[in-house]
Amino acid sequence: MIDLHSHILPGLDDGAADLGESLAIAAACVRDGVELIAATPHVREDFPTTSAEMRRRVDEVRAALEERSVPLELRPGGEVALDRLPDLDADELRAFGLGGNPAYLLVEFPYHGWPLDVHDRAFRMRAAGTTLVIAHPERNDEVQAAPERLEPLVRAGALVQLTAASVDGRLGRRARAASAALLDRGLAHLVASDAHGPLVREAGLAEAARAVGSERLGRWLCDEVPRAIVEGTPIPPRPAEGARRPWWGRLRRS
Q1: Host H or E run for residue 132
Q2: What is the share, in percent, of the chain residues with pLDDT greater than 90?
Q3: Number of independent structural domains in the chain
Q4: What span, in angstroms and rounded, lies between the C-alpha atoms of 204 and 99?
Q5: Could you give the CA distance from residue 196 to residue 239 in angstroms, rounded to a whole number?
Q6: Residue 171: which H helix or E strand, with range?
């Protein structure tokens, strides 16, 4: 499996505090069956990470993984707040390319409210050659109330990333039900951990893939789509079989 959203880099944001925590996250990933992880530190007002800082930390963690023979490939990236996009020049945005691919950019969707210009921004970025990957919209209150609001955003070319802990229920009923609704509507394209510490990964991508209810769809979400992003190949079509909706997917969102 491939995990394209994590806060594994030490000392840059609210993720790993030091190299020891970075290595603990890496060890948990390996136990979960992850072979490649993207480091996606926050890039926002409270954590104004630069691409140069991100690259230095990636090199530091890579060296530590190699020294300890940890079988986990680490790729660069960033989780850029929507309101920071106009402040970063084209070279800086490319440097934060998801998994090292400048054609994709992970952007942080807010937990509350609806960003009014998000559809226009996704369309313009796609026209300029960059696909926005929307991080964890199922945790947004507006999306929880009306998951169909994401349809125009996906039509504008964006991809949607769900958090593993939302899919399998660790983040609560509302996030779980919104994840199920987005999967049912074909509005989700990949699942990632958003790991901030090793304990978050006690049940990671493997558990989320099982919770989807379809082995084929779980593989598409947790391996095939993120692999295509990393390798720069076309996004594979969604499997014809849909999720076999588990009982929690039928819960009314409230």
Answers
A1: strand 131-135
A2: 85
A3: 1
A4: 19
A5: 30
A6: none
The CATH number that applies at residue 207 is 3.20.20.140
Q: Where are the alpha helices (DSSP H) in the chain?
A: 19-32, 51-67, 90-95, 118-127, 141-145, 151-155, 164-167, 173-184, 205-211, 215-219, 225-231
Residue in this structure with the two tokens 């992003």, named with its chain if needed: 229
Closest CA to 138 of 168, 172, 179, 189: 179
For residue range 91-114, list pLDDT tens digits in order: 999 999 999 999 999 999 999 999
Q: Tokens for 114?
A: 């609806």
State both tokens at 251: 């819960």
The pLDDT of residue 204: 83
Q: CA-CA distance, 74 to 71, in Å (whole number)? A: 10
pTM beyond 0.90: yes
The alpha carbon of residue 184 and the mean position of all alpha carbons in its chain are separated, in whole angstroms, by 19
Strands 42-44 and 79-81: parallel
Alpha carbons 180 and 122: distance in angstroms, whole number:
23
Distance CA 198, CA 23 (A): 9
3-state secondary structure of 196: coil
Q: CA-CA distances (angstroms) from residue 244 to 146, 173, 211, 212?
A: 21, 18, 9, 7
Ramachandran angles phi, psi of 177, nearest 5°: -65, -40
Contact by Cβ (8 Å): 106, 48:
no
Contacts of 214 (CB under 8 A, 6+ apart): 239, 241, 242, 243, 244
Which domain range does residue 44 map to? 2-250
